[in-house]
Write a structure and sequence with these properties.
alpha+beta, MetI-like fold
Length: 381
Amino acid sequence: MTEPAQPSAPETEAPPEVRLAEAGQWTLMRRRFRRHKLAVVSLWLLFGMYLLAAFCEFVSPYAPDTRNIRYLWGGPQRVRFVRPDGRFAPRPFVHGYRRADLEDTWSVALEPDPARIYEVRFFVRGEPYRMWGLWETDRHLFGVRGADGQPGFIHLLGTDRQGRDMFTRVLYGARISLTIGLVGVAMTFVLGVVIGGIAGYAGGVTDLVVQRIMEVLQSVPSLPLWMGLSAALPATWSGVRVYFGVTIILGIIGWTGLARIVRGKFLALREEDYIVAARLLGASRGRVVFRHMLPGFMSHIITAMTLSIPGMILGETALSFLGIGLRPPVVSWGVLLQQAQNTSAMVLMPWLLIPGLFVVLTVLAFNLVGDGLRDAADPYN
């Protein structure tokens, strides 16, 4: 007679020390990165900025070239919640503006008109546009409408000298300025890994030649080199061609730093026991490099790429600000900052410097994320 089977003891969860010891490299990096609060906040900030840039047609109330001749060089409009009579408004609203003659300076200025109230409404119909160039729609995230049903206008960040909405143009400029860093870093990754890997793995004369090339490129000041190469772009090129031309220039110049990192790692790893064993077992060079060497320091490569994105964004902004990078009608943060090149514009219309604030926030956020990734990738942290 067989004995009844004994119920198995319930499996107990492994203690945290055991789970931490068995965790992989990426799991450990993720845990360390979460402890860096500023890096986490910066990562969410960058995610929000890229999200707004991706859906800029829907989020912005106007097209980037739409002009409001009633509000030329107008300042940012304040969203209000309390009516002039002191009552709480059921919907947020903005005031319309009227022109006022200043007797002391004999000039004309814009001042809020409390009699004109434009209510802010969401998911309204406005100017038609093609979302991502695929389908046409006229639905916008927000817009305004007068109390009598008449259309009004809202400019959260003011307008430029031609009456174009700065909020809309900043969002459209974010799409160019933020993506040019990613595309440039992608080129930097390919060139840096390939050239640095060849130099570190082959060694000898190949390493010597690659080292001299990198030293020559790094000895030339970046800004004059960018200016010279960007000035060589034909003036008849379209905005798309200029965009890719500037991206290629930034990628060609920025690969040397990553190539040095990859070269140093390859020199340190090629004599390791598991690399030598892989070669003795007949593994090809490609398998040794991509299967055994690159995964060992991929986290360091990601960190270096994250820290190089701000340099790409600043390079495009500087070139466009000087008028030798992207040119109108292309909208980028550097192109928008061209309007703030003189002192009078900065004094009388400080809102024209708002694209520069977005550049500062983006560069600072990328640097903080890069610092968090660098600390997370440190095995001794």
